[in-house]
Amino acid sequence: MNEEVQAALDAALAGHTAINLEIYYWWCTALMIAIHAGFLAYEMGASRSKHALASGVKNILAFAFMIPTFFAFGWWIYLSGYNWPFGSDGVDFSSIDLMAWDFEGAAAGVPWSENMGPNLQDQASGVFWAAFTLFACTTASIYSGAVIERIKLSAFIVTAVLLGSVVWILGASWGWHPTGWMVVEWGYRDVAAAGVVHTIAGFFALGILIPLGPRIGKYNADGSANDLRGHNMPLTVTGLMMIIIGFFGFLGACLIYDPAGNWVNIYGLPSNLSAFAFNTLMGLAGGVIGCYFITRDPFWMMSGALGGIFSVAAGIDLFYPPLAFLIGFVGGLIIPVGAKMLEKLGVDDAVGAVSVHGFCGIWGLLAVGIFCAGYPGAGDVPAISFMGQLKGAGVCVLLGFVPALLIGIVLRVLGLLRVRNEVELMGLDEAEIPSQSYPEFARWEEATAGDGYDRPRRPRMDGPGRDGPRNDGPRRNAPMVRDRADRQTMDRTDPDRVPPVPPRKPS
Amino acid sequence: MNASPVESFDGAGAIFTFAGQQSTVEGIFWAMCAVLVLVVVASAIHEIAIGRKASRRNRR
What we know:
The complex is a heterodimer.
Chain A: H1 3-46, H2 52-80, H3 125-146, H4 153-175, H5 181-186, H6 194-212, H7 233-252, E1 255-257, E2 263-265, H8 273-294, H9 298-313, H10 321-344, H11 353-371, H12 386-413, H13 421-426, H14 428-432, H15 439-449, H16 484-490
Antiparallel strand pairs in A: 1-2
Chain B: H1 22-59
């Protein structure tokens, strides 16, 4: 074979490799949008009917705000923050340098760089940025479900941007980057982002939930909790199934198709999709069965499917598949127990996000330390160790929780965190959303409610109803169906004050 | 603790076998089977108990 033919073959191979890379991440990104379709259905179904559309709007806006903000600064933080705030000397709390960003290395991530836009010489930046942007959207959606039915939309957008375009991506730069300081110093291993996405997002949600307070009617005067069920369980569990579909895109995008045509994980270590396939499905099954064993509730079983995947995510390319099943099973046991524990502590997490993502994420990180200790790293990176995983989990917990708690307290002090009690009782849809979730039900509920509540009237927006024109005009979205728990609490509630978290019920 | 069978990536194949301890791998496999059986048996017992309770209620 002469040199010209060889050169032509090499060029063709390089071209195909680049195109394969683009195509792979393009479709992983597309598949990840199913996560958001799933979260949309899940959160609307998990809301009571009077809040369903407001929950949907919140979710849609989280998706939309994350994309431009991740373009503006999220991607740059990932590329530049891997040594921040310690610098290149390693973890030393006595020499913290707040300017220890890699300005030079991250030049390609500056929003006005040549790489951040159409560029015929760059077939990687766009698709990698897109995949990471969808990871960011996922973190925001994880947090979104926990705070439904009472957070102000503006407060949610600000906090979601803080999580999705700053906090989690800084954690990713530290622990999900081949030269991140957690990786280089501790041998931290988190291949499919159990810690940097799920633990951080779960504990961010917890940090907001504490200043946000529980929904009206969640707790009785004696501290016992009510179960404020969502209005559409089939929609909720279908949404959860869609999230699982989307996670196949998410997990696939955690592998890198390197220029030599090999699969490597985010740390540059050899890996492959077959390993991911074994353990994703086995972890999923373990999570479902674990939750079924404890609760027999389809909501928790589907949450268990997600929790099982997150429990194996950190070592998804390392575990023996039946071990992944057992790790997922334990994750499935942790979820309802953790959710119940938080409820007893007065934390009203509407969808169990802290438990599913936060607690399972920690368990997954520790499982890698227990079962894969000694597995080598790339180059001089230390091997996996239990202490390295434990310290990494601690960093993820603090990185999620502390900024959220601080911004939550500030927003609460300014009165910007939570809607007024009248709005919450009336329903966020009625107050904020110019369309209706179930207009036909509204008429029926209006006619049959009979609870004496003086509902506000709105101008007629739609045509005459099925029963013909009415003199007073149909009340748009007027149901205001309050749960029994709402009714019990309403008279005791000062409308200008967020209800305090009641003391724990004595055991 | 060193549970990893892989000390270098040269020629690495199966990476889950816990330092080549085939018996550990088989033990994990049977543990998974035991969990599956446990859950099915617990489910059957639960359903029998529920069925009896429903029958008693119906008789009353």
